[in-house]
Amino acid sequence: MAESVDRVTRFAADLVDSAKAEGARQSRSAKQQLDHWARVGRAVSSQHSAARRRVEAALAGDLELGELSVEEGVVFNAEIAAAIQENLNQANYGKLLAKRGVTTVALNEAGEIVEYRPDGSSTVLTANSRPIRRKKVNAGAR
């Protein structure tokens, strides 16, 4: 195989941590493990076999999950897990749910439970006192 020049790129911290752990078990460096996973993923993703088409149909909602074989189900689950991980850091679920009229709760920087209402107001929830009303905040700041 021809020697290729590496290029600098960034990986999610959880992938690097997993690559370090798995690489140690497989006698590979973290970089070698990431390379291995990328090559395996590329090979699997590029297959246009009947099984791959069935997984893609299930991902699109055109095929019931129960119709997938065990092996196809493993690939389906891996595709879903990867998509979730890729999108978690980009999503602002509080803002999305507020637009839908849903009240949410989350921890603030002080570790307090805060209730966020769709109108932009918020309340710190405490066990020993009445809720403290907060003024409307920028929904994008959450």
UniProtKB/TrEMBL annotation:
Q: Give one Pfam family.
A: ParD_like
- Output the superkingdom of the source species: Bacteria
Which InterPro entries does the UniProt record give? ParD-like (IPR021831)
What this protein is called in its record is: ParD-like antitoxin of type II toxin-antitoxin system
Record the organism. Mycobacterium florentinum
Taxonomic path: Bacteria, Bacillati, Actinomycetota, Actinomycetes, Mycobacteriales
